[in-house]
Amino acid sequence: MKKFLVRWLAVPSLVLVLVLSACNNSSSGGKDAEEEPVATTSDKPLAPLKEPETVVIAEDGSASGAGFYIAKEKGYFEEYGINVKFVTFGNSDEMLPAVAAGEVDVAGGISSASFFNSIAQGIDVRMIADKGHNIKGKSYFSFVIRKDLQDEIQSYEDFKGKKVAVSTRNAVDDYIFQKMIEHAGLTRDDVEFVLMSDFGNMMSSMGNKTVDAALQIEPLITQGTEQDIHVRFGDATDFAPKAQIAMVLGSPKFMDERREVAKRFMAAYLRGVRDYNDAFVKEKGNKDEIIDIMTKYTAVKDPKVWKKVGVTGLNPNGDMFVDNIKEQYEFYKENGAIRGDLDIDQVVDLSLVEEVVDIIGKYE
To answer: Which keywords has UniProt assigned to this entry (predicted)?
Structure first.
């Protein structure tokens, strides 16, 4: 979507462009898709695969990929006989067709009109698990205001007449902005919407006082606060407590033709997410170990920053706010940004996480 949101959030839209020919056979481990389902070494649920299988993940170092990184580093994928291969794409226009074709098994997606339009136009991908939401009171994607305006802006109503930077139109950022102004009892005409695609530029603009507020992302929220450029204002969960920001996407081929592999992959992923929640939400377990893994895979290399920032919310049971996905879709549709019709229930597929949670148990 844009640089810092991609890095922190879940959007595969950055840096390197994958040469797909290098991994054409990776998602099937070089095997014919017509072979019978993979057997396991015992009758136990989720016993290791008899033969190792490769799963290709489109991931570019975003913080919301924590479950993937932790599962890899702690050996959860290997325990099930799975090798993971991380690949990157220049943008979602390149990534989504690769997922639909089964050249990539798993990826991350952000709610946006363009994403829904791609699916409506025949790009067959499924939303299979949570990959990003705000944690109440600790949102990693929230509003900030200039530090010198703290006395002037003391409530959301005080955003009236102010210049507010938002990174996109007709995407989850725009939706959260809309929920904020509704919460404040304002209209779009009351606030000057400043489209600014780069989150780093938002911080610079706050510094030179060309904007008054911004819908900002971690770690820039924390960095700007430490540099006395801005201060966090409230929390996005004040007005959008169940906003589904990003989703794990699955290839239909992976979900249907390689179901036994997909189950083991999801079990390893959820175990990684649970370790993440233990460390950052419950403050238990070996937090330093998890931080070391995050510094290895993401753009945030300073362990001290990981102890200060608002981290990405990741549901340890894989659940998504499905009703909110539908609400966002309707918001884009009302704005005239949706081409064609889409039944969200046909796109959301929680069957895999439900099946796996029944086996590994529910995280409380």
So the answer is: Lipoprotein, Palmitate, Signal
